[in-house]
Amino acid sequence: MTDWVPELKDSRQPIYLRLADAIEEAIVSDELPPGSKLPPQRNLAFDLGVTLGTVTRAYQTARERGLLTGEVGRGTFVRNGNGGDDNDLKSNHEPIFSMLGRGFTDEASQKGPLIFSSTSAPNVGQMGLIRPVLERVMAKDEHRSIDYVRRLPRSWSEAGAKWLAVGDWEPDPFSTFATHGADPAILAAMATVAAPGERIVMETPTYKCAAQAIGLIGRIPIVGECDEEGLRPDEFERLCARQHPRAVFLMPAAQNPTHARMSEDRRRDIVDIARRHNVWIIEDNVYGSLLTDHLTPLAALAPERTFHLSSLSKSVGAGLRGGWMTCPPGQAPRAASAHKVLAGPKSFLLAQLSAELVLSGAADEIREQVRHELAARHQLICKYFDGFEFASNPHLPFVWLKLPEQWSSASFVRAAEAHGLRIDGEDEYKPVRSETQLHRVRIGTSAVPTRENVEHGLSLLAGLLLHGAAAYETFA
Predict the structure, then answer these.
(1) Using CA atoms, how far apart are residues 239 and 245, in angstroms rounded to an integer?
(2) How confident is the model at residue 1, as a pLDDT?
């Protein structure tokens, strides 16, 4: 198919990203079946009225997403993903959906890449502790277990206050409510404090879903320079004075993906600036809940302006969708309403199960087992990445790896994919478009099924690092 001309959606995104999105949508809708040949880049540039460089960058972005393949002299084709001829129009559509994260295969037949791009809690046999709690919930509240939440039990807020507690600090249960995990809580906090078009400060790089969420609800991300402790106070001061943001999103306990950690002094400096400029603080402590050496949370230093949130996803089980957020005085009703509108009604079964896991102590027991497993996997990271620069922590499920000079982040991600491993490149964590290249990738080890799988994957990645780009062949 060489006459395909997409209709690009109106958006603030650069044209090349809109074109890459149009290619993805055409593949998903079967407008471009596996094996289809895309138009020559010059032809499409002429048809769309854009530069050749724009189309080239869009095709490259689509290739980095695993959607396209191409060879000099042949052209660019939609990948079939089954290892066969990429120009086979009869190929199965299923691998394409798997590349997009939309696969429908069952676990027994799943033959996709090993997922080193997730940081969900590893399997430590937690169902042995979860199952009896689940059975008690269903036996006690059989009717409500199949329904939405119709009323809010006080125990849910008490469980949230217990789980969100850091060191000697524990939030007020009356200002705490259950969420569908951390992501909807972040979105709800942003929507509560900032109107569409208002600005929110973010570190860069930062958690990719938070960066995407800002644009999704019409708020504008602005970024400041960071150091080994995260957002620099002078940068935060400059942004507040010049751009008047409504909020700042931070992960002071354990920043994703850099592992930056704010000192007590840095936290107090950030709080002081936020107070002087009347800026709300959104504090994500999802990874902090895995740590054992606690520093004073921002919510304890500035309770009047801080939304503090966490979940069970990294410490107990991601599928529980259990999380909580504590709010500044008077803000909990607004934030809970925003959460319901943005994320939908809560499931009684999951919310009650999450609360009882925390209140019974089962969640703490599982968290200790998760910490132990992550520490064992961290030893493998140290073994295989010895001699390379990386940031890590024995209790956290990811590593921020500095690549040798011959590798770019995007090319290393493609090389890993070619070896059956899915990792995250640095662009996934940039809230705004940036020409700055960090030459880093984030590698998560917790969602990989077994330590043996982890060791296999890390050995392949170490081989790529040692032998360089010459060990991986690609085509323009």
Answers:
(1) 7
(2) 57
